[in-house]
Amino acid sequence: MKIVVCVKQVPASSEVQIDPVTGVLIRDGSNTKMNPYDLYALETAFKIKEQRKAHLTSITMGPQAATAVLNESLWMGCDEAVLLSDRKFAGADVVATSYTLSQGIKAIGDFDLIICGKQTTDGDTAQVGPEIAEALNIPHIAYVERIVEIKDKSIVVSVSMDKTNEIWEINYPCLITVEKGIFTPRLPSYKRSLKFLDYQPRVITFADMEDQNESHYGLKGSPTQVERMFPPEKNTDKELWIDSEEELAVKMANKMNQLKLL
To answer: pLDDT band at 227, cuts 50/70/90?
Structure first.
């Protein structure tokens, strides 16, 4: 069984820097971490490997600094890692990012299962996983909260819906996105870090892609454009009200109307 886990390097705090010219986040590897939801995706893959013989590959798209999250995935339990890195991939929105990842997965070779965290903490769209599946023309299930059964040709999962939980069976090859709490992520292993001390992740560039149309990647392949991006202004102003419950309720309603929150 071959499993691919998508991971991403995200800002570790709200202290982010934005390029004033391009308007995109500066991702230089400092003050970054692995997307927390991806830790659950990795642990899901490890649990499956404990039940079935499986080969685990982690994949990410980004600059060379993004190898930090790939190394972490190896220290946790992955067998190999792949970095998609090329200036032609820069500036990608959700659509272009998903397509690039799908092409990178194609370049890796055959797979049975792709696992993603349900979303990232820097984008919060929860769209990349399903869009990867659509680009690869494979079935997918989002918001998986439990692995029910792993079969030879399919996987059975419990899915968290708005008001119900549903059991679904999906055939390989397929993609799932998992909820936080599906498993408790393990810590990286010191022994595995020594084992992969000299390991260099495979780097896939635009030249390695099956689709050589540049208009499908990066800024050129992004149908959505951000007009302006800027760090939020910090404001520590506060108001303290001391009054009866009735008066406080009126003041709160008036304040929310004033701020156009109602």
So the answer is: confident
According to DSSP H, which parts of the chain are helical? 36-51, 67-76, 94-108, 128-136, 190-195, 245-258
Neighbouring CB atoms inside 10 A of 39's CB total 21
Residue extents of the structural domains in the chain: 2-216
Tokens 């390097």 locate to 9
Asked whether the predicted pLDDT for residue 137 surpasses 60, the reply is: yes
At the top level of CATH, the class of 2-216 is alpha beta
Nearest CA-CA partner of 119 in 110, 131, 109: 131
Confirm if 262 and 253 have CB atoms less than 8 A apart.
yes
Residue 31 has pLDDT above 90, yes or no: no
SS3 state of residue 205? coil
CA dihedral 31, 35, 40, 43 (to 10 degrees): -60
| Distance, CA of 93 to CA of 223 (rounded, Å) | 8
Q: What is the pLDDT of residues 146-182, one digit of tens each?
A: 999 999 999 999 998 888 899 999 999 999 999 998 9
In this structure, the number of other CB atoms found within 10 A of the CB of residue 146 comes to 17
Interior/surface letters 52-65, b for 16+ CB within 10 angstroms, e for the rest: eebebbbbbbbbee
